[in-house]
Amino acid sequence: MIGITGTGGDPDVSSHQHSESSDATRHTVRVHDGTEWHVLTCRTGANLRMLLLRNDLSPYVRLTESVNCGGRGLCATCGVRLEGDIPDPEHWHDRAAARFSYPRLSCQITVDRDLTVRLLPDKRIWGKRA
Ligand code: FES
Q1: For residue 110, is pLDDT > 50?
Q2: 77 lines ligand 1 (CB under 6 A)
Q3: With a 6 A CB cut-off, is 107 part of the ligand 1 pocket?
Q4: Which has the closest alpha carbon to 108: 128, 82, 126, 83?
Q5: How far apart are CA 47 and CA 5, in angstroms?
Q6: Rounded to 5 degrees, what are φ and ψ at 63?
Q7: N or C: more exposed end of the chain, with fewer CB within 10 A?
Q8: Ligand 1 atom 1 nearest Cα
Q9: 76: how many CB neighbours lie within 10 A of its CB?
Q10: Which of 93, 127, 4 is nearest to 55 (CA)?
Q11: Is there a contact between 84 and 115 (Cβ–Cβ < 8 Å)?
Q12: How far apart are CA 110 and CA 61, in angstroms?
């Protein structure tokens, strides 16, 4: 099942429900939350973590929902899996994640293309299943 989700009112996030292929600044982000697909839209430059949070699609698990670094790339709790055409990592921690096939840090991903994202609702945090 695919759910169409809004964007949360962020100025860098479109309020449109569909990506316009002729508009290179708008992107579709398909997100699987472990149960179903959601389709978000945003503009180039949107931060993936913020896009997810503003659409009630948290990259965190219960334990880290309130205990995280706030998107500074320090805690490694915002990991998601990306599929398809994936942006190159820019942050050192995200480069390590990409190199070793760990989940990518959603807080360090700037949306510059259409993305397919899988949330990890049963991921391990700091060595434990959270
Ligand atoms: S929120 Fe801490 S690394 Fe992304």
Answers
A1: yes
A2: yes
A3: yes
A4: 82
A5: 17
A6: -60, -40
A7: N
A8: 71
A9: 19
A10: 4
A11: yes
A12: 22
* Cβ-contact 106, 48 below 8 angstroms: yes
pLDDT per residue as tens digits for the range 89-107: 999 988 988 889 889 999 9
Residue 129 Cα distances to 41, 61, 62, 68, 121, angstroms: 31, 9, 11, 16, 10
Q: Which residue carries 């945090």 as its tokens?
A: 125
Are the C-beta atoms of 2 and 39 separated by less than 8 Å?
yes
Q: d(Cα 43, Cα 5) in Å, to the nearest integer? A: 15
Query: Tokens at residue 117, please?
Result: 């994202």
Q: How far apart are CA 75 and CA 91, in angstroms?
A: 13
Q: Is the CB of 105 under 6 A from ligand 1?
A: yes
Q: pLDDT tens, 71-90?
A: 999 998 999 999 999 999 99
Task: Tell me the domain boundaries of the chain.
Answer: 2-120
The class that CATH gives domain 2-120 is alpha beta
Answer yes or no: is the C-beta of 48 below 6 A from any ligand 1 atom: no
